[in-house]
Design goal:
55% strand; seven-stranded mixed β-sheet; 11 strands; single chain; mainly beta
Length: 116
């Protein structure tokens, strides 16, 4: 099993930046595809970005050029650097660990609010 704990959420003004961190614990963490999803009330959870065990990133079109996902396998941590934030980025952000062979896991979520 894998446990995921997010940190770094908060309130930021439009155009500002935040960095989310997700600390993973458990076995074989480096084998998982790690990602960030977000959800707003009444909407389905959507992929923001994910990254393979080898470090290849993938982004939703809405965040390309503004967000950067990275992972440090030595620290079992994945990051989401969010720049040029917009009000529509406001959501609860969830860390995920996904593997067809090992299972899928979620963190508890971190609130990100973009508002002046």
């Amino acid at each position: 099993q894998v446990q995921l704990v997010e940190s770094g959420g908060g309130l930021v003004q439009p155009g500002g930046s935040l960095r989310l961190s997700c600390a993973a614990s458990g076995s074989m963490v480096s084998f998982y595809r790690m990602g960030w999803y977000r959800q707003t009330p009444g909407k389905q959870r959507e992929l923001v970005a994910d990254i393979t065990s080898g470090g290849t990133p993938n982004y939703a079109d809405s965040v390309k050029g503004r967000f950067t996902i990275s992972r440090d396998n030595a620290k079992n941590t994945v990051y989401l650097q969010m720049n040029s934030l917009k009000s529509e980025d406001t959501a609860v952000y969830y860390c995920s660990a996904r593997s067809p062979a090992l299972g899928n896991y979620w963190g508890q979520g971190a609130q990100v609010t973009v508002s002046s």
